[in-house]
Amino acid sequence: MKVVSDHIDRIRDALAWLCSSNPRLNEFGRYCTTFGLQPQRFLTDMPVRWNSTYLKLLNCLEYESPISGFYNMKMSELGRPTLTPDDWHVAKIFVQFLKVFYDSTVTLSGVYYPTSSLIIHHIVEMFELLNNYREDEILGPVVVAMETKFKKYWSEIPFLYALGVIIDPRVKLSGLETLLDYLRENLSVDYSAQVTDIQTKLFEVFSTYERSAELTSYLEAQFDSREKGFELLVWWKTYGYYKYLILSHLAQDVLVISVSTVSLEQVFSTTERIDEERRNSLTPDMVEVLACVQDWEHAKKRLQNEMVDEQLIQNFSNLYVEESSGSNQI
């Protein structure tokens, strides 16, 4: 990872130097216009939150030419190290690599749409990314370490995640088997016993109902997977409800469960969470009460798991600089 961080640090230092002086920033703004770009200011990212580094790099890649041109011109005059094409090459690869994790994290952290039916798809997508970068000269060593941890956590698939996939009429049990077959081939983990166990548990649940044949009918039915604008929860509240009454109630119970109860800020943070002494002394029951009350209050205001990155995205975007008398208007 040091190879990557060295290149990223050089870009980070260049941007910090660039924005540390108002006259310098104004001069850079005029330099940007020669490239047909609107003058831009770049905020300092937070190294302990990898999403801020991702957003910062994503935002500044468009300005590679003016940043390198202006910074290298000034550094050459001072006899100091300059930015190289390799720095930007590594940054582009790093951004492409992080994008899948960033998009998956944001999607799976949602609470106002079903996520239990999505997580295995994202697991496959993330592992496919690791598979593609395994032999990469820059990220290869990092990927090997990530694959080891990935295998540790996903050698077993929780029943809830499997059930979420099965109740998607476009995927169902056969689709789940296809997804797990891909992971089996690449992770060297045999999921066949888990698939059998999942199927057994599913039919055990339905065996308690008089309409147990409903599950078999659903699994064998063919659905058009090409429908545009398909909404899973709406499907189960309408068509699925009238066609598969019992299964629709089960589906709605499963689909309202969020696969992640961790805030986005904690997900993106690379630091350990520290509880102050007062919080650390709370009993488990009291912690549960406080967590529930907070969640209920957020639910009233539709702020559960609020998309904290929206503000961060705005901070890293549209920071256009207007030259003024010694100050920046942002």
Automatic annotation (TrEMBL):
Matching SUPFAM superfamilies: Ribonuclease H-like
One annotated GO molecular function: DNA binding
Every hAT-like transposase RNase-H fold domain range: 110-209
Pfam families for this protein: Dimer_Tnp_hAT, hAT-like_RNase-H
Domain HAT C-terminal dimerisation: 214-296
Protein name according to UniProt: Uncharacterized protein
Species assigned in the record: Acer saccharum
